[in-house]
Design goal:
13 helices; Alpha-Beta Plaits; 6-stranded mixed beta sheet; 5-stranded mixed beta sheet; alpha/beta; 3 domains
Length: 393
């Protein structure tokens, strides 16, 4: 078993293309081909205490939700003036412990951290029975606040050409052999529409149909096939060789990735019936296991009934616009700045804050179950040294 095997398992569940563009995700420390021996430790923050815990247990890798390396590091030392990131990196490098961070990819994926947080707002009791990697069913509708698109490499472009009837099969087969026409588990996928094409060649032309200088009307088929950018050059070259026309008409269209309703940043949860704002706060408090949460009611009344809830683990101010535009009545997140809360209230959006890492840490046992199911024989442990740095006193 290697570190690469761990990477494959994590990215099977939380593909890195789901991560935000500003994020620093993936393998941050270690060798892809390094041996994965010992347990894999899961943590929200990779502090020095967590690093010492991993060393003491003989861990082979750490999955740190928050990227421990975010800004460029100019040196890795433990001398005077060294940072926590430098000291931790040096300790782990010396002992061959790899570090991987999924961060916002784990937020966005179905059954990931955001869905876990939303589960407790829909039905706190039912959320405890959700299997690893699943999403709680029932209790209301849910969708991504900012849906993510999952691009397929074979469907980045569409190649369109116009072919005489008797050459359609030859051209279709040629494009398929060059890598076009792949949709998921299906090959040689195409669409053909009959029609009439016209052309008139000049004196230098050598038309396959008719004569130079004469207008020709030909029964043709519009043939469409998807294609990857990587395969495009070969597909066009092959098409040019096997198309019967001297100058075949060829169009290439870029295709937008298809957004997925249940994948992406944040969640919009619609309860099956209205509940008081304070009830949502109590559900959050029970779900994340904290002594209290902060509530800011848009109308000043915590008893106002709400039904449409925006959910963002950690820091959710970035998605206030999306929540308001999607008619949410309350945003449940970990933390926001004072002026950000006031700005949201002025727009009619109530706020419930449960603390940054408390809205994240409770997901780790479920993640351990997900990864354990994907990697039988590998033991995953949730860090005991990883705690919320903030305490209520």
């Amino acid at each position: 078993m290697t570190v690469q095997d761990l990477i494959v398992a994590i990215e099977r569940f939380a593909p890195l293309h789901l991560a935000e563009s500003w994020d620093n995700v993936g393998l941050l420390l270690g060798s892809h081909q390094g041996s994965l021996q010992g347990r894999v430790l899961l943590t929200i923050d990779l502090t020095e205490r967590v690093a010492d815990e991993a060393i003491a247990m003989g861990a082979g890798a750490i999955v740190a939700y928050h990227p421990p390396i975010f800004q460029p590091i100019k040196r890795i030392t433990d001398g005077p003036g060294s940072s926590v990131a430098q000291r931790v990196a040096l300790k782990l490098i010396e002992r061959g412990i790899a570090v991987y961070s999924p961060h916002t990819a784990l937020d966005a994926t179905p059954g990931g951290m955001t869905d876990w947080l939303a589960d407790g707002l829909l039905d706190p009791a039912g959320a405890r029975g959700v299997k690893p990697g699943e999403v709680l069913r029932g209790g209301g509708d849910r969708r991504a606040l900012r849906p993510a698109a999952s691009p397929r490499a074979t469907e980045q472009l569409k190649v369109v050409t116009f072919v005489p009837h008797d050459a359609v099969e030859r051209v279709r087969g040629a494009l398929a052999s060059a890598g076009a026409g792949i949709i998921g588990n299906y090959e040689v996928c195409s669409f053909a529409i009959p029609g009439h094409g016209t052309f008139r060649g000049n004196a230098a032309s050598n038309p396959a149909v008719g004569k130079a200088g004469e207008l020709q009307t030909v029964q043709e088929v519009r043939l469409e096939m998807v294609c990857s950018r990587r395969a495009l050059a070969l597909a066009l070259a092959t098409l040019g060789e096997l198309h019967p026309y001297e100058e075949p008409a060829i169009d290439v269209y870029p295709l937008e990735p298809k957004p997925e309703r249940g994948t992406g940043s944040g969640r919009r949860v619609t309860l099956d019936h209205e509940v008081p704002l304070r009830e949502v706060a109590q559900r959050l408090k029970a779900h994340i296991g904290v002594g209290g949460v902060d509530v800011a009611a848009a109308g000043g009344d915590a008893g106002v009934k709400v039904q449409r809830i925006a959910v963002v683990p950690g820091a959710g101010a970035e998605l206030v616009d999306a929540a308001v535009n999607d008619s949410c009545q309350v945003l449940v997140t970990g933390e926001m700045k004072h002026h950000e809360v006031n700005a949201a209230l002025s727009r009619g959006l109530s706020i419930i804050l449960g603390g940054h890492t408390p809205t994240e840490r409770g997901y780790l046992p479920r993640l351990a179950g997900v990864l354990g199911g994907l990697m039988p024989g590998v033991r995953f442990a949730v860090s005991a040294a990883d705690v919320d740095p903030l305490m209520r006193v």
